[in-house]
Design brief:
heterodimer, A: 226 residues, mainly alpha, globular, B: 217 residues
Chain lengths: 226, 217
């Protein structure tokens, strides 16, 4: 059981800050940041694509950490956090793949290409979709939690291998945060950081809200166990 | 345990006939995708070989872990005075034997149906198959127990295992394509490194994590 009085105060604060951050981010995206010379207005999708991709991958890392802690401590809240992070990661990485595909069509004249980052994100999407399918399939809650925690750990151990193998296959993706800033204008970089921060606050708020929701769901369910 | 599992599987044969048949059908169906007179590339042939192997892996480990479902035999295994990791190792070893047996049928099918006769080095090919199979059975034996007792275990296990296998399958395809006479691949040792790392990471993970999957809850 989580401390509801504390989370009940934090969640609205995070939600309001995140929403305000996203509104401010719109100003940075559409007014402050310059229009890119070759791609034009379509480049703006990048300010949604990259924060979604980053927070998606961070969510998957949270699944790994929460699963590991669950296996050690057996605290149900860690299982709920892992489930929530998997759901958020799946949603964010799915949106990142869609926005990336739209970007790729305009930039590279193809909807999809074999690229380490694209492929790794897609493989992660499949793995965590399987993870959530597994959660629905096992009736025994204790077994489900343990098995999903194991999958949550091995899924993330696989990431470096997926990335390396996809990179060795072939790559054309640009390096945004490479040496020297990856060629981004300072205004674009500032806008990007504002977007990443705003999405981050919103993500943490949704994570806490969903964990609390799952906790309440379990408590209600336990009321009807005889 | 390996001896017991092999005896049970070969007593009626269904546990090994199904994966072999499924793999052979896959190879045959993929051979129809090439127009008459055109050659199948070495990379495509290697992809089909590892795809057939992956499906065989799912069926083999479902069979291996379903053996103990009847008569509460699984509880007997849990009560036996041995570390649970022994169950993982013995299932992995049995799975490896069955998978190699299935591949004994898949490989001639690749030669016959997909026209792959120019094997560069048979010993290297055997080494590649064993290296990739190591990773496959490490994951198969770890997660095979997940779907134990589940009605739709084949589909559940496929959804969970296939995405995890992607780096290993890419390595198997690249090394297989090279040895089947495809284009020279300078990164062959790097691919072998990926396959080795995969086997090592999942063997280590399985030794630590298997008791959580197999225990009674």
């Amino acid at each position: 059981m989580t401390d509801h009085s504390m989370t009940a105060k934090i969640i609205p604060a995070l939600a309001i800050t995140g929403a305000a951050g996203l509104v401010i981010a719109q100003y940075f995206i559409w007014v402050y940041a310059p229009v890119e010379a070759t791609m034009g207005i379509l480049q703006k999708i990048f300010y949604f694509h990259l924060p979604l991709a980053w927070w998606g991958l961070i969510s998957f890392f949270i699944v790994f950490c929460a699963s590991l802690v669950f296996l050690i401590t057996k605290k149900p809240v860690m299982d709920r956090l892992a489930q929530t992070a998997a759901e958020m990661g799946l949603l964010y990485s799915g949106l990142a793949l869609i926005t990336g595909s739209l970007w790729a069509r305009a930039a590279w004249n193809t909807w999809w290409t074999w690229d380490p980052r694209l492929s790794t994100t897609l493989v992660m999407w499949f793995i965590y979709a399987g993870y959530l399918a597994l959660r629905q399939s096992i009736d025994n809650p204790q077994k489900m939690r343990a098995v999903c925690a194991v999958l949550g750990v091995v899924a993330f151990l696989n990431v470096p291998l997926v990335f390396l193998s996809a990179r060795m296959w072939r790559s054309i993706h640009p390096a945004v945060f490479g040496s020297g800033g990856g060629g981004l204008e300072p205004e674009m970089m500032t806008t990007l950081l504002v977007c990443i921060f705003a999405w981050g606050i919103l993500t943490i708020g949704i994570l806490l809200y969903r964990v609390r929701q799952l906790d309440i769901k379990d408590r209600i369910k336990s009321l009807f166990v005889y | 345990m390996t001896s017991k599992d092999l005896k049970l599987i070969f007593s009626d044969g269904s546990g090994i006939i199904q994966p072999i048949l499924l793999g052979l059908i896959l190879v045959f169906v993929f051979s129809l995708s090439t127009p008459i007179g055109e050659e199948v590339s070495a990379q495509a042939a290697a992809s089909i070989f590892w795809l057939a192997t992956s499906f065989a892996l799912i069926l083999v480990f479902n069979t291996l872990y379903s053996i103990e479902e009847t008569n509460q035999a699984r509880t007997g295994l849990l009560l036996s005075p041995m570390p649970l990791q022994h169950v993982w190792i013995s299932k992995a070893f049995t799975g490896l034997i069955l998978l190699l047996l299935a591949q004994l049928f898949f490989f001639p099918a690749i030669i016959v149906f997909l026209g792959q006769e120019n094997v560069a080095d048979w010993w290297a090919l055997l080494g590649v198959i064993l290296l990739v199979d190591w990773g496959l059975v490490a994951v198969g034996s770890l997660l095979g127990a997940v779907s134990q007792g589940h009605a739709s275990r084949d589909s559940l296990l496929s959804v969970v295992i296939f995405p995890l296998l992607i780096p290993l399958l890419l390595a198997g395809i690249r090394m297989g394509a090279h040895l089947l006479g495809g284009a020279d691949d300078e990164s062959l040792s790097s691919w072998a490194g990926i396959a080795f790392s995969f086997g090592a990471v999942f063997t280590g993970a399985a030794i630590i994590l298997f008791p959580f999957v197999y225990n009674e809850y």
